[in-house]
Amino acid sequence: MSDAQTSGSTSQAPGFYRFRIGAFEVVALHDGVVVRDRPAGFVRNASDEEVGEAFAALGMPRDKLTLTFTPLAIRTGNGVVLIDTGFGEGGPPGTGRTLSNLAAAGIAPEEVSTVLISHFHGDHIAGLRRKDGTPVYPKAEIAVPEPEWAFWMDDARMAVAPEGLKPNFGLVRQAFGPDAGSVRRFGWGDEVLPGFTAIQANGHTPGMTAFTIGSGNESMMFVADITNNPLIFARHPDWQAMFDMDPEQTIATRRRILDQAAADKMRVSFYHAPFPATGYILRNGSGYEFAPALWTNPAG
Ligand SMILES: [Zn+2]
Question: How far is the CA of 123 from the centre of ligand 1 (A)?
Answer without folding.
Answer: 6
